[in-house]
Amino acid sequence: MANVPVLLRLASTTCCLAVLAANYNWLATLPTNAFTSLVVSLATLIALSFIGDNSGPKQPELHRYPATDWKAKLPERNIREGYPKYNEKDAVKSFTSVCECLIRECTESLPSTHELPQMEQKWIVDMLEYNVKGGKMNRGLMVVESGKVIMKSQGREPTDDDLKKLAVLGWCIEWLQAWLLVADDFMDSSETRRGQVCWYKKEGVDEIAINDAFLLEMLVFRVLKRHFWTEPYYMDLVDLFMETTFQTECGQLLDLQCKNLGLADFTYKRWELIVKYKTAFYSFYLPVALAMLVTGVRDKKAFDTAREALLLMGIYFQAQDDYLDAFASPEELGKVGTDIQDKKCSWLFAHAYHEQSTPEAKSFLDEHYGKCEVGSEEEEKIKDIYRELGLQ
């Protein structure tokens, strides 16, 4: 593939993106699993079209990080050897078992390495158990599936340790999402998440949830260090997580600032900017980019091309999520939809307010959007406006 002319590669990439754009409405009908498979397949195809010599740099002499080399020693052996064998035929169960191992190894040594009393150690265990589980795990599983496809295209079968490495990185994304959700729920005063009461609403938690979100974020980097510090691509992983986290926090700021804006500012362009940074980078680009790094992809054009397609998919995903917030039941959604109450710049609102609503409907939105309670007549009327405009 390294000798394929640049124009041919660009043409194949353009065709992929054109097909995706032309079939936007059809994509909306796909179930989640089918859509995830499409994401993995398309992104991997695009990335592989740019792969040349992916042997990567030679492994340098290991850096020992002397400034932090005290009680919390880095493992000198492959700690994944003690994990259960990864069974591809029962991928969800195997993936979940890796999470159990990570929780245990991240917390069992805290009394000796960080002098945490048993109460605080148990708090972290309980916090992890409550917040990192219960999701669909699509982002994490996407890392494993993308890595498998790339490795097989390189002419090698993934080893058991390859699968465990990919699963560890998959859980790093799931933990990244968990801390974002813990913080997001607190800032939005949400009630439920994944079918259970939000973490900050639990008895005895309240403002401690803010610190718990920070803990979750830092645990991601501890996992990366424990499992990948000997790998030549370790700093690439750290750099990617740091950049993606910053992008996501910028997206969160764009979202939160909507409380200080007028409804006229809730344009489709602003909505697209919010979802690109708040959702698309970490939910779609990050999983595939991690798999590319682990499998030795070094070509910048491969990452650029994959990013372009994956961000487009992430924007579609958030449009679907905005729709579900308004029209899915709490049982289907796993939470109570609050976009109308929270004055969110959603896909539904941007289209209704700026492109399709009557003067009467716009006046009603001006009066009640972001000011009505969940389940109120005003909220239902706003949903009726969406329905009348054909947005349901």
UniProtKB/TrEMBL annotation:
Keywords, comma-separated and alphabetical: Magnesium, Metal-binding, Transferase
One GO term of the biological process aspect: farnesyl diphosphate biosynthetic process
UniProt cofactor(s): Mg(2+)
CC terms in the record's Gene Ontology section: cytoplasm
Coiled-coil blocks: none
A GO MF term: dimethylallyltranstransferase activity
Superkingdom, taxonomy of origin: Eukaryota
InterPro entries xrefs: FPS1-like, Isoprenoid_synthase_dom_sf, Polyprenyl_synt, Polyprenyl_synt_CS
Keyword Magnesium: yes
The family this protein is said to belong to: Belongs to the FPP/GGPP synthase family.
Protein known as: ERG20 protein
UniProt organism field: Symbiodinium pilosum (Dinoflagellate)
Organism taxonomic ancestry: Eukaryota, Sar, Alveolata, Dinophyceae, Suessiales
GN (gene name): ERG20
